[in-house]
Amino acid sequence: MKKLNILTSAIAFIALFVACSESLLDTPAPNISDESFFSSDAAAYDALVGAYDPLARYNYTQIHEWMIGDIVSDDAEKGGEGPSDWAECQDLKDFRANAENSILAGRWTEPYVGIARANKLIAGIQENENISAGVQKRYIAEAKFLRAWYHFHLLKVFGGVPIVNKVLQPSEFTEPRNTVEEVYAQIEKDLKEAAPDLPTKPELNADEMGRVTKGAAEAFLVKMYVFQAKWSEAADLSQKFIDEYDWYDLEDNYADVFTAAAENGKESIFEIQYSFITGDDNWGDDNEGNVTAIYQGSRQLYNGKGEIESGWGWGFNLPTQNLYDEYEEGDLRRDYTLIDDGDVLWEGTDDEEVICTQHINGIGYTQKVYHSRKYYIPKSERNGMSDSPNNWRAIRYADLLLWNAEANAHVGGDWQYGVNEVRTRAGLDPTTNTDGLDAVYHERRVELAMEGHRYWDLVRTGRGNLMAGYSDNKRYMPIPQGEIGLNPNLEQNPY
Q1: Which of 42, 51, 186, 258 could form a disulfide bond with 117, CB atoms 3.0-4.6 angstroms apart?
Q2: DSSP string over 157-200
Q3: Distance (Å, rounded) from C-alpha 14 to C-alpha 21?
Q4: Per-domain residue ranges of the chain
C-alpha cells in the first residue's frame, strides 16, 4: 500500500493496534499508555496510517473483491491450474463453502482489525490537548469513514455482524450479532458525521492522494442507500454529487481508466493505494504492492515464432463467454475488459505481449473463457509477485452515475442521463431500451465488469438465480467456525 503516499513504518502503532489476542474483536493492551502514545500530531498520523493499512491486505481487497465479486458470479470462472488450484475458491464459486473456509476467515478478520484501529484512533485523539484541533477533526472523520467501510465489507458477506463502534472492554468480546438494519444504520451515521469534516478532492495535497475525501464519504453513502433500496435518498444525494462536484468526471477514453496515468485521476472517487518499494522477496503483506496483477495475468504467451511459452501470471478470474456476449457490437469497453487468445497488448512497444489462452482448454471449462484486462499491467510495471503498484479502483465516477440512474429508474426520474454518459464514452449511441432498470443492469455489467461488483449486484437486486447453484439461503456466507468458537453468541448463517 502507498501508506497515504508517505513511507511510514510507524513501529509504535504496531504494538498498539495489531489484533493477536483470543478474540479478533479485541485490541490488546498496549506496551505504552494511550496518553504516552498520542502525544503529538505525528503520532496521530502514524495511528491513522495503521487504520488505513488493512484496506490493502492480501486477505482482503487484494483477492477478496474479485474472488467473490467476479468469480462467484456469472462473470468469471476461477481459473488457475484447475478446480483443485485453490479449491476453497472453487467451493465459493459452487456455493458449497463451509465455516472452515480460510478465505472467509480472512474476510472476517481483516475488517475487524481495521475497525479496532479506527476506534483506538478516535478514542486516543478526541479531546486530546496534545493533538491540534484541525488534526482531531479530520482524522476522526477519516476513521469514521474507514469504520463504516470495514463494517460494510463484513455486512455484505456475512449479513448482520457485531457492531464495534468503540474500544471494547473484555466483557464485550462476546457480543451477539446486530441485525442487518442496525449495521446499516451505524454505517450511515458514521458517513454522515464524517463527510462535513473531510476535505474535498481538490483540497488534497499531492502527497495526500488516496486519503478519504468528502466526495468519497458521500459516494459511499449513496452506495449504502442503493444497497438498502432507499431510492429517493440515493437519487437526491447522487444528483447533488453530480451537480456540485465538477472535479469528478469520466476519463475521456475508457482504455485509460486502469492505466497508471489515470490513478487518482478525475474519475477516481476512492482508490486503495499500492506501490512498489524495494524491499525483500517475501510474499503478501510484507510488501507494499498488490497481487491482483499476477493472479489475473496469463499463464502462457506466444513468442515471436508463434510458439507457446510461459507467461508471468497465474490465470485466475477468467471472464466467461456469457459476459462477452453481453457487450453490444462496437462497444469499446469489451476489448479493454476481455483478452482473447492471440490478442496483442501494448503493440509496438517494449512491453508487447501476445496472449495465449490454450492452457484453459485443459482445465475443464466447457464454455470459452477469456483473461481479464483491467488489472493486467505491462511488464515494465511488474515488480515481483506481491509488489505490483496498480491501485484498486474502489469507487469511480461511472459507478456513481449508474447508481444515480438506478435510483431514478425506481423513482421515475431521469435514468437515461447516467446510462447514456457511460455509453457515449464507450462509443455507443444513446440507449433504445425503454426499461430503465434493464438498461441500468446492462450498463453496470459491461461498464464495471471484472471490478468485483457483479455478485453483489445480482443478489441485492433479486437476480441471484442467474448464478448456477445459488439459492436465497446462500445470500450470506458462513461465519468462520473459529469465530463462533471464540464467541458462542454468534449465530451461524443458514448456508
Answers
A1: 51
A2: HHSS-----SPPPGGGTT--PPPHHHHHHHHHHHHHHHGGGSPP
A3: 14
A4: 1-197+462-495, 291-379
SS (H, E, C) 13-79: HHHHHCCCCCCCCCCCCCCCCHHHHCCCHHHHHHHHHHHHHHHHCHHHHHHHHHHHHHHCCCCEEEE
The 3-state DSSP class for residue 258 equals coil
- C-alpha cell, 67: 474472488
> What's the pLDDT tens digit per position in 107-160?
999 999 999 999 999 999 999 999 999 999 999 999 999 999 999 999 999 999
**How many Å apart are CA 300 and CA 296, to the nearest integer?**
12
pLDDT single digits (tens) 34-70: 778 999 999 999 999 999 999 988 877 788 899 999 9
Whose CA is closest to 53, among 98, 16, 97, 90? Answer: 16
- 203, 365 in Cβ contact below 8 A? no
Return left, alpha or beta for 264; rule: phi > 0 is left, psi -120 to 50 is alpha, else beta.
left
Distance CA 446, CA 457 (A): 12
370: Cβ contacts below 8 Å, ≥ 6 apart? 318, 319, 320, 321, 324, 338, 339, 340, 357
Class of CATH domain 1-197+462-495: mainly alpha
Question: Which three-class secondary structure state does DSSP give residue 310?
Answer: strand
Cα gap 430→443, rounded to integer Å: 12
Q: What is the pLDDT of residues 168-184, one digit of tens each?
A: 999 999 999 999 999 99
